[in-house]
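Human: Respectfully, please carefully check these tokens:
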Amino acid sequence: MKKTSIEKPQEYLDLIAANKDKYLYNDHPSDGIDLFCDDKIEQIGWHACTFDFLQYRNLAAFMEDNCDGELVFNDHPMGFNAYAIIDDASKTAVQLREFCIKKIKEENTPADELDDDQIEAMEFFGLKI
């Protein structure tokens, strides 16, 4: 992703208001990232987050480093604020899903240690239990 720093907080707030219908997520200092605005990507995030090692921040970091789009941020002493706009939601969903599957496989949690939500997530990602 292209990364754009906005120095003045008011300019950042104006941009976020103008782009609220376009951004995939808003990273706010008090809430962090709590959902993705694209339904398909949100479903991936919802299921991935049943595992402690895959949280919204991890998923956003992956997208910021590997997907096409723009991350606009204001790194202010009172807290980091950012939002991301992706170029192609379908392509990003495929990339994110593959990332999650890879991480779940790497973790290799024994089936008897999975809770019901994690079992559902495994099924969602098409992984054998």
User: Anything to note?
Assistant: The mean pLDDT is 94. Residues 33 and 78 are 17 Å apart (CA to CA).
